[in-house]
Design goal:
The protein is mainly α. It is built from 19 helices and three strands. Strands 1-3-2 form a three-stranded mixed sheet. Helix 11 runs antiparallel to helix 12. The longest helix is centred in the first third of the chain and has 13 residues. The radius of gyration is 26 Å and the shape is elongated. This is Ankyrin repeat-containing domain. Pfam families: Ank_2 (PF12796), Ank_4 (PF13637).
Length: 287
């Protein structure tokens, strides 16, 4: 039968079971017992006092269990619990921990909340806690496609972002974020933007960067596209860009079994291949 730990009960918000088991252990200190509750066994021990239980419970959003743990000696220390709650979007838990924990350093919490797209928590940290942040806030929000958060940070914070914002937005296929950053920010991007967009097979972003940005790409772009089998990207780069590729294009295509890419490269490019490419293909039965 499945065994359920204190940590699992806390994370699941099973406050009733926790209270019952706690009462039993108070009457029998030092005991380690196994109780049966209908279809499951609960392994009960003193492990509930571990602060990791509080951290994971905060991340699961069970405020009633967080309060109960605090009442029975598991107090919030440091910022791990409030950071976990912030990343998971549990504003009520964040507010309670803010009021009841002694550690008042909330630096970098805003970065985590922004990356997770939790605008309500970002606003609370900004307005109530006066939390500091870094460029990782907007960079992370852009990377994950949270344009609403990116826009809010742009209007209300003065930290800004780095070229990583547009580079990662391009890599993850967030064209709307790439367009917004281009129109509203000055950091721009690097050649990684198009290189990574090619890696992800995002032809719309590759085209947009080609038409609207001047950074261009490297031969990594076609190599990356070959690695992941994006023949449509390879053909477009071949027709519209001059960077070409390296022998790694065929090596990576062979290693990953992209036979159509190999055939096209052999017919249309002159970079050739290496013995490594053929060896990988043969080893994996791709030829």
């Amino acid at each position: 039968m499945p065994r359920v730990s204190w940590l699992e009960l806390a994370e699941d918000g099973a406050l009733g079971y926790l209270m019952l088991l706690h009462s039993y252990l108070i009457r029998r200190p030092g005991r380690s017992v196994v109780w049966s509750f209908s279809c499951c066994e609960v392994a009960a021990c003193r492990a509930w006092r571990d602060v990791d239980t509080l951290i994971n419970t905060a991340g699961s959003g069970h405020l009633d269990v967080v309060k109960w743990l605090d009442k029975h000696g598991v107090h919030p220390t440091g910022t791990a619990a409030i950071a976990c709650a912030a990343r998971s979007g549990h504003l009520d838990v964040v507010k309670w921990l803010h009021k009841h924990q002694t550690d008042r350093c909330f630096d970098l919490l805003l970065d985590d909340a922004a990356t997770s797209g939790r605008l309500d928590i970002v606003q609370y940290l900004h307005e109530e806690l006066k939390a500091n942040s870094t460029t990782s806030a907007m960079d992370g929000a852009a990377r994950e496609g949270h344009l609403e958060v990116v826009n809010w940070l742009h209007k209300h914070r003065n930290v800004g972002c780095t070229t990583s914002a547009m580079d990662w937005a391009a890599r993850n296929g967030h064209l709307h974020v790439v367009e917004w950053l281009h129109a509203n920010r000055t950091e721009g991007c690097t050649t990684w933007a198009m290189d990574w967009a090619a890696l992800g097979g995002h032809l719309d972003i590759v085209k947009w960067l080609h038409e609207n940005r001047s950074e261009g790409c490297l031969d990594n772009a076609m190599d990356n596209a070959a690695k992941n089998g994006h023949l449509h990207i390879i053909k477009w780069l071949h027709a519209n860009r001059t960077e070409g590729c390296t022998v790694n294009a065929m090596s990576e295509a062979a290693a990953n079994g992209h036979l159509g890419v190999i055939r096209w490269l052999l017919s249309n490019r002159r970079e050739g291949s290496t013995s490594v490419a053929l060896w990988w293909a043969l080893m994996r039965n791709h030829l």
